[in-house]
């Protein structure tokens, strides 16, 4: 992997905040579609979809990050990601862009032992016009 891909992130929104995941982990971005519910799955697992022959679990990122649920609308997207052989779809409010964030402008996550949310974050990208919360995909994909 070269440095040019290492500092590119797919940016999406949840509520009013911007989040990013490394583009190297993103397979595609899809429109929301009907899913099949899985009995006894955690509440943040919304079900599975069949995408081009692959069965993919859908994770509602709002629920995973303890945000309020939101109705699905025309902007809702599924970001298909892959991390260490795990394939999943992350349901987000909207997907906005791919941006480059230099390592020099990424701050470490604030430290707090009692905030589970922070374990999903590995850094904060500081851009001139906004902050991007960079997610630790391996932690997000843990059930």
Produce the secondary structure layout.
Layout: H1 3-6, E1 8-14, E2 17-22, E3 26-31, E4 45-51, E5 54-60, H2 61-64, E6 77-83, E7 86-92, E8 94-100, E9 106-107, E10 121-126, E11 131-135, H3 137-140
CATH architecture: Beta Barrel
What Rg, in angstroms, do the CA atoms define?
15 Å
Within the largest sheet, what's the order of strands? Answer: 8-1-2-11-10-9
Global mean pLDDT:
90
Unreliable residue stretches: none
Structural class: mainly beta
Instruction: Give the DSSP E fraction (strand runs of 2 or more residues).
Output: over 45%
Question: Got a strand count?
Answer: 11
Separate helix tally: 3
What shape does the CA trace take?
A: globular
Topology order in helix (H) and strand (E) letters: HEEEEEHEEEEEEH
Distance between the termini: 28 Å
At the first level of CATH, the class is Mainly Beta
**CATH homolog superfamily:** CheA-289, Domain 4
Largest sheet: 6 strands, mixed
How many separate domains?
A: 1
In brief, what are we looking at here?
By secondary structure, this protein is mainly β. It is built from 3 helices and 11 strands; from the N terminus they run αβββββαββββββα.
